Each structure stands twice: as C-alpha cells, then as structure tokens.
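Inverse folding, one chain.
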C-alpha cells in the first residue's frame, strides 16, 4: 500500500523502482512479486500507467504542448512520451487530444 501511494504521488516526479525499494524496506523481487499478485503488473508498469493517466488528463484539459506535458509528467523527451503513449493507448497523443475534444 505504501509503495502504491508513493507511485501515485511521485510517478510524475520521476520516482524509480529502486527509490521505492529503499523507502518501503523490501527487496526488489518481493516488491515486484507483491505488485504482480495484488494489481497484476510490475511497479515500473504502474509508474508508467500513472504517468500516462496524467498525460491523458493534461491532453483533455489543457492546450499545453507535448514538450511541456512531457516535462510535467517526468519524461525527458516528448518523442519518447509519444512512443510510450501510442504503445499503451494505441493512438498518438495528438489523436487522443482531437478525440477528447469531440467527446467533451
């Protein structure tokens, strides 16, 4: 529960699995096992999931550029954010923003 809380609060600030391990005082393998058992994915995937949820929110609610959004959610390069977003959401950030504008 503490690890999930850390991810929810610090995913966009660049928290790493190694930092979580240090803060919750368990080994990386135990942390990974618990995550897979309780939420069905690894801590790293959960970090990415939280980041992408924030990206989706910012795409829907702001006119920020992808570069600015990348900076806000902890991605060094907007191009990499675009690749990760498309892999997880199945459409590009720009397509998502256009679709959201029609929906909302």
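Residues assigned per position:
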């Amino acid at each position: 529960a503490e690890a999930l809380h850390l991810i929810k609060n610090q995913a966009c600030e660049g928290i790493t699995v190694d930092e979580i391990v240090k803060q919750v005082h368990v080994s990386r393998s135990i942390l990974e096992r618990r995550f897979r058992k309780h939420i069905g994915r690894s801590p790293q995937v959960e970090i990415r999931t939280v980041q992408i949820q924030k990206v989706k929110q910012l795409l829907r609610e702001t006119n920020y550029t992808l570069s600015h959004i990348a900076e806000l959610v902890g991605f060094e390069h907007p191009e990499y954010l675009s690749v990760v977003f498309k892999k997880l959401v199945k459409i590009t950030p720009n397509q998502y923003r256009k679709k959201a504008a029609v929906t909302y």
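The chain has a mean pLDDT of 95. The chain is about 75% helix and 0% strand.
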